[in-house]
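Q: How would the structure tokens look for this protein?
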Amino acid sequence: MADAGRVKVEASDRRVRAMLGGEYVVDSSNPLLVWEVPYYPTYYFPEADVRTDLLVDTGETKRSPSRGEATQYAVKSGDAEGAAYAFHEPKIPELAGHYAFVWKTLDHWFEEDQEVWVHARDPYTRIDTLPSSRHVRVEIDGVTVADSTSAVFLFETGLPTRYYLPKTDVRMDLATPTDLETACPYKGVARYWDVTVDGNTHENVLWGYDSPLPESQKVTGMVSFYNEKVDVFIDGERLEQPKTKFS
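A: Here is the predicted structure in token form.
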């Protein structure tokens, strides 16, 4: 493992494949995990594992202070087009001879034989979902909007504990579905609700997973509030609101 400044680089032995236009554009058992952003890694692949015959140099480059100048490529497969890049003279030696793909421009990603969404999964992120009989109560603007002793506590590395509650224990009469959806590679696709209390609407403060991924299936059909935006009481004690990117 290398740590070049603020960019961590680590070898992985997971087989990673990606498809575009019905073809595999990369198939590698020796990818690198590169933390281009702090929250999750990007896969970089050895040139030998990449369908370089499908790459077309766009003539454009993009500079990174930590990694150097990246050559930009279009990825052509049938009628589909994706995007890739490579640092041919990288500031981080491990990246030499490697290519990365812009995740959202490809059709499907697989780690071993399991499809993965949104971005590469961080090997240091863990999800634990634990049923709890502790008393969970949620207030918004001083009004109790949830009260339960049948919660599932979801512990995710780097985030506050989330308290998932049965809808029967939540004032869903105050909730209005919104069009917002977000995706998580560890939990799946979430849908959201606004919650209106005394005429004051709190946008997208409540969410849930109808069909979560295997490691999060215990929260199927349950809902959770942003601790950052509501008052949560556990066994009668009010929790301090955490400060996160969701605050």
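The domain at 2-116 is CATH 2.170.150.40 (Metal Binding Protein, Guanine Nucleotide Exchange Factor; Chain A).

The chain has a mean pLDDT of 95.

Upvote if useful.
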